[in-house]
Specification:
The termini are far apart. The chain has three helices and no strands. It is mainly α.
């Protein structure tokens, strides 16, 4: 698999997850959950090598995407 596939797929999932609304909002929330799961996996892999600030920043990004998924699932986004 080419190296560009994963970033492109994650970007498409993020953009599509944010843009889906109305009756498709649940699918957008699932797409955002997939992106947050991938980011959490990357965080877990890089955890031993990160400084405290890096850990905090990456954990905040994972939390922000999870928050967006929750808002999307509740129909507030």
């Amino acid at each position: 698999m080419p190296r560009w596939v994963i970033p492109v797929v994650m970007g498409l999932l993020l953009a599509t997850g944010l843009f889906l609304s109305d009756s498709w909002a649940w699918l957008g929330a699932l797409m955002l959950l997939a992106v947050s799961a991938f980011l959490a996996w990357l965080l877990a892999l890089s955890w031993p090598m990160l400084t405290t600030g890096g850990r905090l920043a990456r954990a905040l990004v994972v939390g922000a995407v999870l928050g967006l998924a929750a808002l999307k699932a509740l129909g507030k986004l």
